[in-house]
Amino acid sequence: MIALVRIPRRTRTDLIAISIVLTAASWLIAALGLFGSLRESLTILYLWQTLFLSTLIFVRSEGNPYQIFRPTTLMIIYIGINAGVGAYIFNVGALIGPPTLFVPRYNAWSNLFDVYVVVSASMTLAFIFQSVVDASIQSRPGSSRVSYKIQSLIFIYLLSIFSMLIVVSMVDENIVVIVARSVIVIAIFYVAFSQNSKFRWLIVLACVSSLAVVSADSKREAIFVLLPAVFMEMSRYRQIDMSLRLVMVGFVMITVCTALIVAMSILRGYAGLEARGLINALELVPTYLMSDIALAMLGNNFEISYMFFVLHDSISVALNDHRNVLMYGESYLKTFFVGVPEELLGFKPRSIVEGYTAHLAPAFRAVGGSFPPTIIGEAFWNFGWFAFLALIFIFFVLDGIYKRICLAVPRSSLAMICLMLFTYHMLPSLFRGPGFDLVWAYIIVAAAACAALLLPVEFVLNILTQKSGRPVTRSVLPRRRIIQSHRS
Question: Concatenated DSSP letters for 372-436?
Fold first, then answer.
């Protein structure tokens, strides 16, 4: 069902004007050096811009979950925080391990102001885009129409599959197992939230902790699955209010995520601490954080040091040496060749991690290493100054897919819904910049996992419930409506 509301055009254009003025003011501050040298100012400038753009998004959307969880919103926050905190880490020299090798290049950046303007403009461009395209679409919460018994049966099945995958992970962990785990975890979350279970967040914590135990070397898997969980929770409301309760819940979630990421790092041997398991690793978190090199280690744990450097370095090189490094869309073209053997065509486009990493660290790339240059860095590594046009197209694609996902949820099967949510949960990975080809490869594997693990149980339950006239495939999850306003 689609309802109509009206949001005056004046409000949106006013906020666009404010964003442009504040962004230009930030550039002026950087140019005049009012906060010191540019390297010293980047932290304040990036975090300030992230704050005012996020505030403008919240004001424009009136706290509506659909607008707040748009990919362009998440990109602004993700890039802004990583750039701001990473700038501080590099400026104070809180580096350890591989990032220390980046210091000579960091000190040699001669066009840092241009790079800063590019990153800042890309963030504001994302805000302007979402203020113009689909700006008046809002979501409204719905309700599930499936019996508690049916949902409980599905939940038990999903828990058994998840337990089996955890056991398999201890023997052999590969991309198929990793993706299947994420798919099942997302399905568990979805059923728990559709039941409005009082224990839904305990279920989330239990699943994430289980992933942390068996996947200590891949902390992103355990943390990124939280995105669809938060999205589902917030979608239960027509409007998100910035209350003290919400702030406290957010603080607790950030604290839990930080503790888990640090614990997973301890399990991998960071800081020379030896842990016998996840519980013991969590007990060692305070010791880890009190270390003299805690900030440097946290910069590595959250990949902030890497992200700040590769974001700015890839753009710096692309603007300075565009004749020799630009890929002219080759890394995007590679997306269409995923799964196609090179021998079949005689050639295969390079990925962005091949193009950029081979330039930054050829020896590291030769042994399979990679430095993803972020979604913005990839655009500039392909098109130089024309990257802004590529970014606008990317915003169209990402926000368009997000819109289709939200519209399709009420009438889709559990398998399709979980595939769509898996795609959504890959957004932070995409922002990191491994390339659309790698993300697409994961989505293909996820589609196979959904078909193999979720479609059969839906088929069986639909047969069992056929007499009731309430098929599982159309109502396992809460119905969600998209409301699009029309301006007069």
Answer: --HHHHHHHHHHGGGHHHHHHHHHHHHHHHHHHHHHHGGGS-HHHHHHHHHHHHTHHHHHH-S-H
Beta bridge partners of 140: 481
Whole-angstrom distance, CA of residue 7 vs CA of residue 1? 19
**DSSP string covering 341-379:** -HHHHS--PPPHHHHHHHHH-HHHHHTT-----HHHHHH
This prediction has a pTM of 0.90
Tell me if 270 sits within 8 A of 288, measured CB to CB.
yes
Residue among 297, 300, 281, 301 at smallest CA distance from 219: 301
Grouping H, G, I as helix, E, B as strand and the rest as coil, residue 139 is strand
Q: What is the band of 475 on the pLDDT scale with cuts at 50, 70, 90?
A: very low
CA contacts within 13 A on the Cβ side of 45: 30
Residue 109 is classified by DSSP as -
Cα gap 170→182, rounded to integer Å: 16
- Contact (Cβ atoms closer than 8 angstroms) between residue 256 and residue 205: yes
Return the residue matching tokens 């056929």: 466
- Contact criterion met (CB below 8 Å) for 41 and 30: yes
Decide: helix, strand or coil at residue 140: strand
Residue that has been written with the tokens 């719905």 in this structure = 142
Question: Which of 479, 374, 435 is CA-nearest to residue 139?
Answer: 479
pLDDT value for 482? 47
The predicted structure's pLDDT at residue 451: 93
Q: Which of 98, 75, 95, 96 is nearest to 87 (CA)?
A: 95
Per-residue b or e along 370-403, where b marks 16 or more CB atoms closer than 10 Å to that residue's CB: bbbbbbbbbbbbbbbeebeebbbebbeebbeebb
Residue 10: pLDDT band by 50, 70, 90 thresholds? Answer: very low
For the segment 143-196, what is each residue's pLDDT rounded down to a tens digit? 555 556 677 788 888 999 999 998 888 887 788 999 999 999 999 999 888 877
pLDDT tens digits for range 210-220: 887 777 566 77
Burial (CB < 10 A; 0-12, 13-18, 19+), residue 207, is buried
pLDDT of residue 143: 57
**Coil, strand, or helix at residue 483?**
strand
Task: Quote the tokens at residue 267.
Answer: 């399990």
Return the pLDDT at 248: 83
In the numeric block, which tokens belong to residue 257? 């995520």
CA gap 3, 139 in Å, rounded? 10
Point out which residues pair with 138 in neighbouring strands: 483
Is residue 288 within 8 A of residue 266, CB to CB? The reply is yes
How far apart are alpha carbons 488 and 352 in whole angstroms?
Answer: 44
